[in-house]
């Protein structure tokens, strides 16, 4: 009887491990300069402002989940800019080739030069999804570099766990 129970426990453990397996993801985003941007100077010191902006991005090297590749990504963010640095957070809505959408929350710190993004580094976590991505969990990191025209290239990596 003990051997039967042991085998049953091992089988349940093996199935739980497979069902909860995490998929590593990585990709590259090419993001335009912000389509919309609204800045309000705080007034307590020079170059201190709160900024709300939105930019559209395309996956030039998209990650793949369940046989569908990431296509586009729209990031909406709130930043506190102080001189040549910024801290921001936001939510991104992305679309897969299948039409399913994913939502992620992100936080980052950036350096600026002449008011344009020079470099950015941050973390993200899944905040939901539609279709096959509903209930998805995971998190990751990103690093990026700004261009003279206000666009940016961002390298993303992380993990994804689909619902059981």
Helix and strand element order: HEEEEEEEEEE
What is the name of the CATH architecture?
Answer: Beta Barrel
CATH topology: AOC barrel-like
Kindly report the spatial arrangement of strands forming the biggest sheet.
1-3-5-6-7-8-9-10
Radius of gyration: 20 Å
Distance separating the two termini: 30 Å
Percentage beta strand: over 45%
User: What's the domain count?
Assistant: 1
The CATH homologous superfamily name equals SO1590-like
Count all strands and give the number.
10
| Helicity level | 10-25%
**Largest sheet: number of strands, sense, barrel closure:** 8 strands, antiparallel, barrel
Mean pLDDT: 88
- Oligomer kind: single chain
Q: Class in CATH?
A: Mainly Beta
Write down the overall geometry: elongated
Tally of contiguous helical segments: 1
Protein structure class = mainly beta
Q: Regions with pLDDT < 50 over 5+ consecutive residues?
A: 1-19
Any chance you could write out the topology, listing elements then pairs?
Blueprint lengths: L1 H18 L3 E9 L4 E6 L6 E14 L2 E2 L2 E15 L2 E12 L4 E13 L2 E14 L9 E8 L5 E9 L4
